[in-house]
Amino acid sequence: MKFQQIDQFAAELKADTRAAVYDGSKKGHEKRTKLLFDEYADPDRLRHIAGEVKQHVVENLDTYLPQVEAKLKANGVIVHWAATAEAANQAVLGIMRARGATKMVKAKTMVSEETELAHFLEKHGMEALETDLGEFIVQIDGDHPSHIVKPIIHKNRREIATSFEKNGLGAYNDDPQTITRRARNFLRHKYLEADVGLTGANFVSAESGRLVLVTNEGNSRFCLAATKCHIAMVGIEKIVPRDYDLALFLNLLARSGTAQELTVYTEFISGPKSPTQPDGPEEMHVIFVDNGRTEVLASDCRDILRCIRCGACLNVCPVYRQASGHAYRSVYPGPVGAVLSPLMMGDKFPQKADLPKASSLCGACNEVCPVNIPIPDLLLRLRNRAKEENVPSPGTPPMGAWALLASQPTAWRASLFGGKIINYLPTKLLPIPALRAWEAKRSLPVWRGGEFRKWLKNRPPGKSSA
Amino acid sequence: MSSSDDRESILSRVRGALAPLHERAAMPDYTTELAVMRQMMGSRDLLTVFAERMALANGIVLTEPTALVARLRENKWLHGYCDPVLWPSLAAYFGADFKVETTYDRKRVDDYAFGLTRAAGAIAETGTIVLNDATTSRRLGALTPWVHIAVVERAKIFSDLPEAVAGLGHDNNVIWVTGPSKTADVEGILIEGVHGPGIQIALVV
Asked: Which residues of A touch B186 (CB under 8 A)?
């Protein structure tokens, strides 16, 4: 069988899109490697430690969640909890309605992508404007992001210029600088008119209740300078134990994500604006969102909750590069998405059970991961789960005959002997169609079945290596 | 379900998920020396390293108010906002061709070509300016103009990230600024000045 399911989804995407994703992800990875390894004495240890810190948090969430909640409340923050995507969206809507607010400006947050917040709010008569340039373009196009960090990695400038023209943002011009200036001029007035600013959080310190936000464009800063109410949607796994730990994670996040030492803006928010500051939110809400995370926590794949959403595993993954983000049909594409997305489906796991197979298990994702998540191991566990739950697996050749052979030593030895016949058989006459197709473009090596067993049997005793 | 029902259900699911674990992962013991760039400082002083690193992030470091005024004039950035606390000490450097306001009017956001505010400090290792609510007179004044000038006191430069994290203090809003606002969303091409300043200057005094 030539294709996996993901290839069929990928085949529906335009060639341009896939080429853009390939180039973008490859560049991101190469820069990252240089930056990380040139500057640190022991970058590998750095990411191992970071992984241990996050694993500790994940396995002690029962302690850390109440701790961070208490700290936030003491800082004057109103804390909400949302078990589902629907509950999270309702919480945001409730806050807006209580304030008589109708306009929101949104910074980029992956949790709000999960819950499709902007769409939900629009349905309920609210304006919810994406302000990250990439997310803004995705929004006016009615499209979906295809990368965690670079949402429009799949688009080229001509497509963007066309949709700007369509949306009344000036005559066609595909110069990236012009596109950016037009978005700047349009959005700055939107921030100033908005009632509510929504952000996510990259980290939350349990010790101080500080939310840490990293951005390059300055859109979350603008949201928090122009509006009077700040709502942060935060996944329950985003906690780090102490402020002390932030230096470690900040060092890793920007380097892994965008190959920067730091993103341009790193914001530490621990409450509403200070009383003497004229600009910014007088009211601050944090919504802790579960939306399937406790399901992941209960599974044997809970290590994936360490993820800090840097996107390095996407950039390095040969499958992501070829298939591009949309083929994963999830908010989280790439290797991290292949683990997280099926797990977050809960009972609907079978719908995404093909994703863990979209990997050659080469291990590159684990190697680049700033929190050292053993992604290939987790993919294998999920493949196993799909098998145990009898999820149909189109595209996988039937292995029944092989399994039978491999479990009967006599039959196995007989087949090894029989295999020798292949050496003398013209390949056109090979009895298996798949093998014939393979052989049409390659030459089969000479069959040496059984040689190893012969060697093992005859080697001098007592020697561990020959 | 209300938020408090959701709280109980989330916490009980978390407890249920963790209950079968025989052992929980321990917090590793580490020092933040691990997260400091090697050989960055050498025997150089903090200002030298800060200036070098900030230039690498496409920021501009100036140490003389006259140099700042010359640059603003040269680029015809003549209308700006200035923190009222700073203005008395800087007014003498600015000529009559400048229009500098010490109040910020959010209805005229496009009028201000530059904004001059105080920084809380800086970080040498990364060329970063530290802003906070206590020292920033207006968040918008430091953000919306094309040019932002942060006045950094030489004595308040941290050496590296771990030191700067330790010095976060009790301000509700601390912002580390490393170079001008930027994006590479369109075809990976770097464009500066997206929502924040396109020119980021540190005036070290």
From this structure: 133, 152, 155, 157, 160, 176, 179-180
Pair of tokens at residue A33: 């490697």
Provide the token pair at A250.
Answer: 């900040």
**Mean pLDDT for chain A?**
90
* Predicted confidence band of residue B40 (pLDDT cuts 50, 70, 90): low
What ranges do the domains of chain A cover?
A: 5-11+294-388, 40-291, 411-458
Q: How many CB atoms lie within 10 A of CB A243?
A: 18
In order of their start, the domains of chain B are 44-204 (3.40.50.10420)
Could you report the per-residue pLDDT of A161-200, keeping only the tens digit for each?
A: 999 999 999 999 999 999 999 999 999 999 999 999 999 9
C-beta atoms surrounding A125 within 10 Å: 10
Quickly name the fold that domain A5-11+294-388 has.
Answer: Fumarate Reductase Iron-sulfur Protein; Chain B, domain 2 (1.10.1060)
Report the candidate in A1, A79, A2, A26 with the shortest Cα–Cα distance to residue A324: A26
Cα–Cα distance for residue pair A158/A135, rounded to 1 Å: 17
Contact A193, A101 (CB under 8 A): no
- Interface A:B, Cβ pairs < 8 A: 266
Q: Do B37 and A39 touch (CB under 8 A)?
A: yes
Q: Considering only CA atoms, which of A245, A185, A231, A194 is closest in space to residue A92? A: A231
- Beta strand pairing call for A265-269 and B157-158: unpaired
The answer to whether the Cβ–Cβ distance between B28 and A53 falls below 8 Å is yes
pLDDT tens digit sequence for A335-358: 999 999 999 998 899 999 999 999
What Å distances lie between residue B32 and A212, A246, B36, B156, CA to CA? 18, 10, 7, 20
What was the pLDDT predicted at A396?
72
| Min distance B116 CA to chain A CA atoms (Å) | 16
Cα A346 from Cα A83, distance rounded (Å): 13
CA distances for A409 relative to A12, A65, A415, A458, angstroms: 45, 54, 10, 19
Minimal CA–CA distance to A4: which of A351, A359, A340?
A: A359
Residue A264 has pLDDT above 70, yes or no: yes
In contact, A103 and A228? CB cutoff 8 Å: no
Question: Is B186 within 8 Å of chain A by CB?
Answer: yes
The alpha carbon of residue A243 is apart from the nearest alpha carbon of chain B, in Å, by 7
Query: What is this model's ipTM?
Result: 0.97
* Cα separation values, A38 from A175, A250, A255, A387, Å: 34, 17, 12, 43
The residue of chain B with its CA nearest to that of A157 is B186
Closest CA to A365 of A388, A390, A333: A333
Q: Among all chains, which residue has been given the structure tokens 């909400």?
A: A80
